[in-house]
Structures are given as C-alpha cells and as structure tokens.
Amino acid sequence: MHEKERHRIILSAVQEKPVVTVQEMVDLTESSEATIRRDIAALHVQKRLRRVRGGAEAISPPQFIGLAGRPFSVNETINASQKRAIAREAVELCGDGEPIIINGGTTTFQMVHFLTGRRMPIFTNSFPIAEHLLKHSKNTVMLSGGTIYREQNIILSPFDNDVTRNFYARRMFMGAQGLGPLGLMEGDPLLIQAEQKLIDQADELVVLVDSSKFRKRSSLILCGLSRIATVITDDGIEDREAKMLETAGVTLIVARKTAKEESSLQA
C-alpha cells in the first residue's frame, strides 16, 4: 500500500475513535509495525495527529465515535475483480420477485451491476447500493433507519423497533471481516448487533468473501458456520478451507473471473 493511502487510513482511524493502537493500524493497512511507527512519527511532526504510547490520537478528539475497519473507498479497490465475479454468482441465486437483503459492503455492492435487469424487493443498509439500484434498476428498494457511518457508507441502528423487523427475505447476502472454523467474524460490536437483526429476517444466509478473508481473524463472532447456507468465494480458496465448509454442511461456490474481469485487473 502506498504511503499516501496509509496516511489517509491512519488519519481516518484516529478521527473515528479516541486512541488507535499500532496493532490496529497494522491490521487496517496490512503493513509492518515498523512502517506504521514511521508513519505515526511523520504525521506527528506534521501536526496531523498526536503520537501516544502504543499508538496515536487525533489533535482534536472526535465528537462522534465511528466504526472499526477500513473506509469503504479503500476496501473498494482491494481484490476488485474477484469481488465482481463473486457478486455475479450471488445474483445468479436470485429469482425475480424474490425478496432479498443486501448488507452493506464492497463485495455486496458489486451485486448492483448484475441486478439492473431484475425486479425484486431489496432491503439494504447501504447508501451506495440503494442509490445505484434506484438510478439503474426497477427493483423496489427499502432502506434501514439509523445512524449514518460516512466512512463505511452504512446505516446502523441499535434499536429493536426499526423497520428491519418488518421485512422478510428469502436470502441475505453479506460480506465479513473474516471467516474461520468458529464462523463469521466482524470487527465492531455495533456491526454485530445490527447484522444479527438482519440475519434473523432471512431464510438463508449467503456469505460473499474473497479468499483472503479465510486467513483473517477478529475478536468478534457474528454467527457460527451452521447458520450459513452458502459461501461464494474466488479460486484462491485453499483445500483445507473448502474442507472446513464441507464438514460444516455449507455449500461452496467458487467464482471464476471472466476475460473482461481479467483484463480490467491487468489494466
């Protein structure tokens, strides 16, 4: 990752919470600890953040605590062709008129490109997904209520009496921070709380993750493998990871990139 992009992620992180540790920045940027310490030192000298023991904090403390994790705009550029191929396979599971839930995320966002010719009731907590579907499709779109988290482009509510409880879905499509033997993992308690409500409204849970997510972990578990009906990933999945899903009774779909997606990756 380029230095400029790392600095952007670090500065965004310190605006989202009071103190961000070096390890959290390492996870967000996928860089070494030494690199992050140099970045913190440089930004401290530039007076863009304040270096503290074990991490950094904002010069002006944030008024609003955001979500843990990388911004949507950064995640969008990572494994982009794999995400598009995965999203294409996800939409193949959908039948016209079938109600679905699409949880906010950069992989699930790619579904919008393949939903343009469909007519379905779609519930989402994502501004970008709702906006694209409204502009480029005839689908019926319902947005959740709650607080808008700008960096992740997502709407979340901690309350039980929101509109989520009034929508039924044949399937829910979602991504995750990580996927392992214990199940689906996320990085923020508020995400867990909001996503569990959505999962309860769907018959089947379909997880869209590029193969790198099988090697990532978080301290928070959203649900066990037994709740997942289908996992769609790319051909980078390892045999032991495929075996883990098979043992748990989870259907595995491996998405292959088209020639067009391959060429966009090389470009």
TrEMBL record:
Pfam families reported in the protein's UniProt record: DeoRC, HTH_DeoR
SUPFAM superfamilies: NagB/RpiA/CoA transferase-like, Winged helix' DNA-binding domain
A GO term, aspect molecular function: DNA-binding transcription factor activity
HTH deoR-type domain boundaries: 3-58
Gene3D superfamilies referenced in this protein's UniProt entry, alphabetically: 3.40.50.1360, Winged helix-like DNA-binding domain superfamily/Winged helix DNA-binding domain
Transmembrane segments: none
Entry-linked PANTHER family: HTH-TYPE TRANSCRIPTIONAL REGULATOR SRLR-RELATED, HTH-TYPE TRANSCRIPTIONAL REGULATOR ULAR
Signal peptide stretch: none
Name the UniProt record assigns to this protein: DeoR/GlpR transcriptional regulator
Organism: Mesorhizobium japonicum
Keywords from the named record: DNA-binding, Transcription, Transcription regulation
